Each structure stands twice: as structure tokens, then as C-alpha cells.
């Protein structure tokens, strides 16, 4: 079968033939229909410091996908050949304290699909049945392919109650944009989002943000002024991983404000801990999705009319992966989809 592989320990990706995987006991073989390109995939393609330490070659990339069940290994129940599915890309041990307590998203031994084991940028992928999410209600294939990052957005946005709250999102990448859509749908009073890319801020407007602010031109305090806020934002969702973004967010929160952090910094940095303490700000780190509570929430949000279509800005056949990755690497695009049906 064809697969997009990190064949060598150097920048680049290679479309090559690899053996089709076979499902073992408890496994599901999935014919891949669509995949989404993630920032993780961009890091691996460029072969940066993180990728060199996290990935061994050769490795089939990809963890955002939708596909059709092609075959079942022994001992698989409640999944049928032909089902439309997505997959939870964090494979957990099932034996640690958190796994045994049902908190699988906190497993210390998590292996990432497309990072620690071969992934979904291929015509077929194998996953444990416990990581397969069956779409029981109709869903667009492109949206099904991005349930993984959509889950990051939902997990972050719904970390704190949003009804009637004023929400600040720093970072208008695809996940930040989806978080804006979720916050708007979940009943926030105002949703403001910041970035340095006007193109991405325009996508965020289409997705439901009330106010977009280019922070290369205006401070975050300008968002407060435009919205008529007198005491600061109630909820902060930090999606960029940028030191200046978190500092600005902390400086514009109300006393007792709550911040959820999804953006992953490249290195350690200082923040004003005195402000955090004296303003009694709560900070919560977010990683991945709650298995599978977040997945239920995603499905229900879509059933209730949440529209994620603005975040998808390009679709390419998998043979055009070079152009697709080039677009995904710009500061102008939303989610880019690879079509594996051709």
C-alpha cells in the first residue's frame, strides 16, 4: 500500500510502498479516507530538535484521520465492517493508576499514533478497538478527519463553564479557531481571539469570534476596550505557546479568572506569578482529549449545529502531499486535508 513515511533522519517525507498492516486480537483494520495535517507532522517533516528526539525512522506519519472499517481482529465487539470511524491517537498502557481509574488521558506511558508507532498517512491503518470512535450519526468526512484536533479545542474550551463569560483566546491556529467556535456555541458572552496573521483572524471571524485582534498592531488591552470590559476577561484559552501571549493574557484577566493552556512552548519562560497569586487566577494544563468524554461532547456539539467548515481551507489528493504540507506550514491556512480515496 502507499504511505507517507519519514524514511530518513533528515528533512522531508517520502511517498513509498509499505506492507499493509494486519489486525491482531482486539485490533481494527481501517481503510483511510481522509487525513488532517497537524503541526506535529510539520515538525517531523522539517526534522527539528523535537522530532529528532521523538521519532525513529522509518515511520508512517499521521494521527488525524477518518476511514472505513475493513476488517476486525479476534475479540472485537460493537464495531462492524463498513463503519465510518475516527481514531484516538493516544495509545495508553491500560495498567497504570490513571488508566485503571478511567483517566486514560493522564496515562504516563502514552504512545502517539504516527509518532511512536506507524500512523494513518497510508491507505490502511490498524488501531486497537478501544481507540476507535464509531460515527453513529452522519458527519462530513473532512470534519470526521479532524476529530483529534477538534477534541483538543473542546477539551480546552470546556475546561471551565462558559455561559455568560467573556473569553480571550490567544492563537488563531486551527485549534484556536475551533475553540472560538465552541465557546460561541456554548454560550460565552464575548469571544475575542488574537494572532499576528490577518488571514487566520478572518477565518476566526467566519467561525464565530466576536472580536479579532492582530497583536502585532494592538495590545490585548485594546480588546477589552472594544468590548467594553471593565474588569478583564473571565476565561483565557492559550493556544499559541508564545511567552508574550500568556503574559498578555495574565495581565488582562479579571480577579478569579481561569486560564486553560494548550499551546506548547518551545522552551521555559518567565511569567508574573505575583499577578497570578494576588489575582487568584487558576491555570490548568491541557493535553489531548479526555477518553472518551470529549469525543461524546464533540459529536453532540456537531449534532446541535456547531459549524466547523470555515476552519478547513484546503483539500489535496495524497499524491500532492508536498503542496498540502507547504500550505499547512504557512501562517494563512486553517486545517489542510489529504484525500486518500484517489
TrEMBL record:
Pathway: Metabolic intermediate biosynthesis; 2-deoxystreptamine biosynthesis; 2-deoxystreptamine from D-glucose 6-phosphate: step 3/4; Amino-acid degradation; L-threonine degradation via oxydo-reductase pathway; glycine from L-threonine: step 1/2
Enzyme Commission numbers on file: 1.1.1.103
Coiled coil: none
Cellular compartments annotated: Cytoplasm
Residues the entry annotates as binding NAD(+): 175, 195, 200, 262-264, 286-287
Site residues (Important for catalytic activity for the proton relay mechanism but does not participate directly in the coordination of zinc atom), renumbered to this chain: 148
Annotated residues for binding of Zn(2+) 2: 93, 96, 99, 107
Enzyme category, top tier: oxidoreductase
Keywords recorded for this protein, A-Z: Cytoplasm, Metal-binding, NAD, Oxidoreductase, Zinc
Catalytic activity entry: L-threonine + NAD(+) = (2S)-2-amino-3-oxobutanoate + NADH + H(+); 2-deoxy-scyllo-inosamine + NAD(+) = 3-amino-2,3-dideoxy-scyllo-inosose + NADH + H(+); 2-deoxy-scyllo-inosamine + NADP(+) = 3-amino-2,3-dideoxy-scyllo-inosose + NADPH + H(+)
A biological process term (GO) from this entry: L-threonine catabolic process to glycine
GO molecular function terms noted in the UniProt entry: L-threonine 3-dehydrogenase activity; zinc ion binding
Positions annotated as active site in the UniProt record: 40, 43
Positions with a binding annotation for Zn(2+) 1: 38, 63-64
A Pfam family: ADH_zinc_N
Entries under HAMAP family matching the protein: Thr_dehydrog
NCBIfam families the UniProt entry points to: PRK05396.1 (NF003808)
Xref: PANTHER family: L-THREONINE 3-DEHYDROGENASE
Subunit structure as annotated in this protein's UniProt entry: Homotetramer.
Similarity-based family: Belongs to the zinc-containing alcohol dehydrogenase family. DOIA dehydrogenase subfamily.
Protein name: L-threonine 3-dehydrogenase
Species, as recorded: Streptomyces qinzhouensis
Amino acid at each position: 500500500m502507499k504511505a507517507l513515511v519519514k524514511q530518513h533522519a533528515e528533512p522531508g517525507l517520502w511517498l513509498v510502498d509499505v506492507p499493509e498492516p494486519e489486525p491482531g486480537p482486539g485490533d481494527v483494520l481501517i481503510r483511510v479516507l481522509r487525513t488532517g495535517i497537524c503541526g506535529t507532522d510539520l515538525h517531523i517533516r522539517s526534522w527539528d530538535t523535537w522530532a529528532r528526539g521523538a521519532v525513529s525512522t522509518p515511520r508512517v506519519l499521521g494521527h488525524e484521520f477518518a476511514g472505513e472499517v475493513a476488517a476486525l481482529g479476534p475479540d472485537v465487539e460493537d464495531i462492524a465492517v463498513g463503519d465510518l470511524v475516527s481514531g484516538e491517537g493516544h495509545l495508553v498502557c491500560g495498567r497504570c493508576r490513571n488508566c485503571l481509574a478511567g483517566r486514560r488521558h493522564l496515562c504516563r506511558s502514552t504512545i502517539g499514533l504516527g509518532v511512536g508507532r506507524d500512523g494513518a498517512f497510508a491507505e490502511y491503518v490498524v488501531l486497537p478497538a478501544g481507540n476507535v470512535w464509531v460515527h453513529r450519526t452522519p458527519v462530513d468526512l473532512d470534519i470526521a478527519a479532524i476529530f483529534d484536533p477538534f477534541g483538543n479545542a473542546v477539551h480546552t474550551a470546556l475546561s471551565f463553564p462558559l455561559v455568560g463569560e467573556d473569553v480571550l483566546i490567544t492563537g488563531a491556529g486551527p485549534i484556536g479557531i475551533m475553540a472560538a467556535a465552541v465557546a460561541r456555541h456554548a454560550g460565552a458572552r464575548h469571544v475575542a481571539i488574537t494572532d499576528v496573521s490577518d488571514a487566520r483572524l478572518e477565518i476566526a471571524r467566519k467561525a464565530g469570534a466576536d472580536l479579532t485582534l492582530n497583536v502585532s498592531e494592538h495590545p490585548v488591552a485594546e480588546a477589552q476596550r472594544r468590548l467594553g470590559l471593565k474588569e478583564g476577561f473571565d476565561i483565557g484559552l492559550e493556544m499559541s505557546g508564545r511567552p508574550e501571549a500568556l503574559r498578555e493574557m495574565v495581565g488582562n484577566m479579571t480577579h478569579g479568572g481561569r486560564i486553560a493552556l494548550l499551546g506548547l512552548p518551545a522552551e521555559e519562560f518567565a511569567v508574573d506569578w505575583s499577578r497570578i497569586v494576588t489575582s487568584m487566577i487558576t491555570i490548568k494544563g491541557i493535553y489531548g482529549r479526555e477518553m472518551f468524554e470529549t469525543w461524546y461532547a464533540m459529536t453532540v456539539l456537531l449534532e446541535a449545529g456547531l459549524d466547523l467548515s470555515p476552519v478547513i481551507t484546503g483539500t489535496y489528493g495524497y499524491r500532492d502531499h508536498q503542496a498540502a504540507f507547504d500550505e499547512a506550514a504557512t501562517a494563512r491556512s486553517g486545517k489542510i486535508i489529504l484525500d486518500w480515496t484517489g
